Amino acid sequence: MQQQSDKIIRLQGKVQHYAWGGAEFIPGLLGISNEQKKPFAEYWMGAHPSAPSELISSKGNQSLYEAISYHPVTMLGEKVYQAFGELPYLFKVLDVKQMLSIQVHPTKEEAEKGYDAEEAEGIPLNAPHRNYKDRNHKPEVMVALSEFWLLHGFKSKAALEKLLSEVPEFNVFLPYFKKAGVKALYQLVMEMGQAEVSALLATLVKRAIRLKQEGTIDPSHPAWWVAEWYAYQPEGADIDRGIFSIYFFNIVRLSPGQAIFQGAGIPHAYLQGQNIELMANSDNVLRGGLTSKHIDVPELMKHTIFEEVVPEILNGKTVLPGETVYPCPVPDFGISKIELNSGLSYTSRAASLEICIVTDGGALIDNSLVLKRGEAVAMLPGAEYTIYASGPCTIFKAFVPGGSSDVE
């Protein structure tokens, strides 16, 4: 039988230095210096084999991936192990300074087909042109830590008609859109030759840069993001066809504490800001622009939902004093925000492997484990714990809904 103290373990994540990341937020969160101004894009907390977190204890450190491999039922709980065979989520902190690629994630069924097909073709897992790195889907939820901007799904038919009428470079597409619809329109621009894309959008890009410099547009306008993208591109670079998506997709602004869920088939792109992100444990991304990585337009088209989307902004639901849960329509993961102050504590029993990270203030767990801002902890199934705070404190918790807590 495990002692209670063995079920609550400090966790140290892994930083990913992708080029689009900022240089200050994540180092500030983690309390580390970054004199070289390296980009700190993501902080991973989970058991993904490419960058597993470390369990930190007096008995020595251990990879979370290895710990789960050696003791799956103890680490995950019986129900989670039987359902998934692994930790089914990956928990992250993101700092988006430069916008991310236009992308879509496949369903689990399509991911299995795509992975098996690429395996049969003998495409190495680390090949730049590989689309499917695993057999899993990649639904994701994000909670804004700052003002956060993203693209999410196609605009309504009426909004697209208005756009095609008002943007001079897009006027030529209006009759075709009215006749053939959004899928045909998107396929047309995504399959257009590069020379034609550059010729069509050159004036649009110049105008966008001028309008942003003049201060006559703000981030709610697509041109603002076009100008933002080209602030980081080399002189004379080809014009990216991802610009069409900036105009055709909904531009969404989230305030701190607001969330949005993105399921399979919803085209999207993060634009700017900091967030907490939780996703299925997968790295399957189909890209369509605004990136130097592999773009596969036919595969992107195959998995995209070509329907108008009204973005659903989640404010969360209070389930316990101090705890707000953001409902997600998948069995792989759940997320909640715990906000405490002096006099208010939070008591729970882990029903799955839970990961908690402090994003503001500090916390005390069971009067024995102190967590400062940026520090994380893993709660093993069956762990009973109480979190206290002497002042304002914010914690985000990742878990598996309905997980088993029958592990001793």
Which characteristics define this entry?
single chain, about 400 residues, alpha+beta, nine-stranded antiparallel beta sheet, 12 helices, globular
What would your notes on this structure say?
The radius of gyration is 22 Å and the shape is globular. By secondary structure, the chain is α+β, with helices and mostly antiparallel strands. It contains 12 helices and 23 strands. α9 (194-214) packs across α10. It has helices at 25-30, 64-70, 72-76, 78-84, 108-120, 157-166, 174-180, 182-190, 194-214, 222-230, 242-248, 297-303; strands spanning 8-12, 14-16, 42-46, 54-56, 62-63, 89-96, 102-104, 140-144, 148-154, 249-254, 259-262, 268-280, 286-289, 317-320, 323-326, 334-340, 346-349, 354-360, 363-365, 369-371, 376-379, 384-388, 393-399. Its cofactor is Zn(2+). It is an enzyme of class 5 (isomerase). It catalyses: D-mannose 6-phosphate = D-fructose 6-phosphate. One of its GO terms (molecular function) is zinc ion binding.
Helix content: 25-40%
Integer average pLDDT:
95
How large is the share of residues in beta strands? 25-35%
CATH topology of the domain at 317-399: Jelly Rolls
Structure annotation, total helices? 12
Query: What is the CATH top level name of the domain at 317-399?
Result: Mainly Beta
Assign an overall shape.
Answer: globular
Radius of gyration: 22 Å
- The assigned structural class equals alpha+beta
- Order of neighbouring strands in the sheet with most strands: 5-4-1-21-18-23-16-15-14
By DSSP, the count of extended strands is 23
- Give the low-pLDDT segments: none
Please give the CATH architecture of the domain at 317-399. Sandwich
CATH superfamily of the domain at 317-399: Jelly Rolls
Oligomeric state of this protein: single chain
